Amino acid sequence: MTIRPARDCDAPGLPGIERSSGEIFRQSPGLEWIADDTVQSEEQHRALIATGVAFVADLPGHGIAAFLNGEVMPDALHIWQIAVHRDRQGRGIGRKLIEAAEQFAADHEIPALTLTTFRDVPWNEPYYQRLGFVTLERGDLGSRLRAVLDAEEQAGMPAARRCAMRKPLHQGHGLMAAVTV
Ligand SMILES: CC(C)(COP(=O)(O)OP(=O)(O)OC[C@H]1O[C@@H](n2cnc3c(N)ncnc32)[C@H](O)[C@@H]1OP(=O)(O)O)[C@@H](O)C(=O)NCCC(=O)NCCS
After folding, report:
1. CATH number of the domain that 18 lies in?
2. Ligand 1 pocket test, candidate residues 32, 114, 127, most atoms within 8 A of CB
3. Which end of the chain is more exposed for a tag (fewer CB within 10 A), N or C?
């Protein structure tokens, strides 16, 4: 499997990957509707590929199985969406995509990753906690993440079940340079 930057020609296939990924929510009490919810459009993918940060997981002989996209904000690389085709979930592809985002952030001296997700869904908040993300309490959100959660609520998301998370990244380059010298 190759994790590589997404290309414009990948965009048409990505909404279908997200629709497939959402099937897992049919087993989540109260959130079954997510499986039929709107997904990012091809145009939104094209825009994030052109001006944001976008990676795909390309499986030899199968094509694209997953994507991650986001945008560089003043305080973090904010992940807007990560989705793995239902048939390929649970094999570490999501973890590899997060690692790619982390590497991108480290290479660009971006101090953190952020995202919003569902609380208490096994493949959301607890999963990201295992990957080093910390759930932010309301008072720690800052105006940017508060606005993201507010917009989600306006769009019909159940606010009580949503949270924002942050993974601080250690900027080790200076230390490595010192050791190398
Ligand atoms: C979240 C998602 C991107 C993770 O990608 P993935 O390739 O399946 O991730 P990984 O294989 O790296 O790990 C899956 C994790 O979810 C957990 N998980 C997955 N399905 C689960 C289930 N049905 N019950 C319990 N845990 C589950 C696994 O235990 C695993 O965690 P671990 O590696 O710490 O044990 C993918 O599951 C997905 O596309 N989900 C639907 C869309 C979604 O929720 N996107 C995120 C929006 S914030």
Report:
1. 3.40.630.30
2. 127
3. C
